[in-house]
Amino acid sequence: MKKEKLFTTKDIYLATTLVSLKNFINNIDFQYEGNNRKLVAYFSFSDNDLVRKTVDKYFRRELAIEPNNFIMNLKGLKSQISSVFKNPHIDR
Hints:
By secondary structure, this protein is an alpha+beta fold. It has helices at residues 12-20, 49-59, 67-86, and strands spanning 6-9, 25-33, 38-46. Helices cover 43% and strands 24% of the residues.
């Protein structure tokens, strides 16, 4: 079975942009980074032409997104991240 290639980012604004433009998040992974072991979220998407073109346009500042949709999706991603801290089963 061929393993699917993923595009992964810890940039929540890029992840929100991808979600707002109808790209599905495959997974949110967490890992500790830095000297103080800060927990950081990584958002994974299927690595396909649409995602690559969107990421390229994001960094060239060539995208337009409906603001309320972006804000709603940003709040949703932040909620998913914060729920990790409320989960008693996470190993910190």
